[in-house]
Amino acid sequence: TGSSQPQRMLKAVQKNATKGDPQSVISAIDHYCRNKEWAMNVGDDKGLILDSVLTEVNPSAALELGTYCGYSTVRIARLLSPGSKLITVEFNPAFAAVARQIIAYAGLQDKVTLVEGPSGDLIPKLRERFGVKSFDFVFLDHWKDRYLLDTKLLEDCGLLQKGTVLLADNVICPGTPEYLKYVRSSPRYESRYYKSNLEYTKLEDGLEKSVFLG
Ligand SMILES: O=C(c1ccccc1)c1ccc(O)c(O)c1[N+](=O)[O-]
Ligand SMILES: [Mg+2]
Fold first, then answer.
1. Is this structure's pTM higher than 0.95?
2. Protein residue closest via CA to atom 13 of ligand 1
């Protein structure tokens, strides 16, 4: 059987990026996905918004739901201060296997813990397994019908603190209507929309930034 798209993405990184240089890994993936095969990375346009929110928050404990091939994992980890950590959760083992290699190629494996399994099962175990008290940044980019469930789960597990920033991808395309309604109407969140475009396309998409008020 032939290679998978994630495997071809990994090949493009190994061919075109420089080992230990996260920016070259990001650029290699963007170039491949824009010119060869579209893939569901957050991409370069929304990636700049992700970068700016990250720089503002400067998290010491970050969580990513939905690793895929590790593109946003690399974007986040490259901006973390020394000693800060990112936990990223991926359900699909084939995606996780490629992501581990891409994260390692970027030289960021010491800042990232990739956990394989369903987010709904793993979130309640993060404290006991990784000694996380709470997160100051969460990037939601997994199955769109899990955003609201997992946000409520994070609340119930006490993994959000006053000021925690939730940043959600794809709130327009493919869309996360229930999640948007929740964070925009709940008195426990201060929410705002960053308009952009679906990765590598001209279609509208955007990121929703929601600050947990405690
Ligand atoms: O759901 C899709 C999707 C749906 C149909 C076909 C391809 C992808 C998608 C599209 C853009 C994204 O940024 C993204 O994170 C996802 N996702 O699966 O999590
Ligand atoms: Mg996405």
1. yes
2. 40
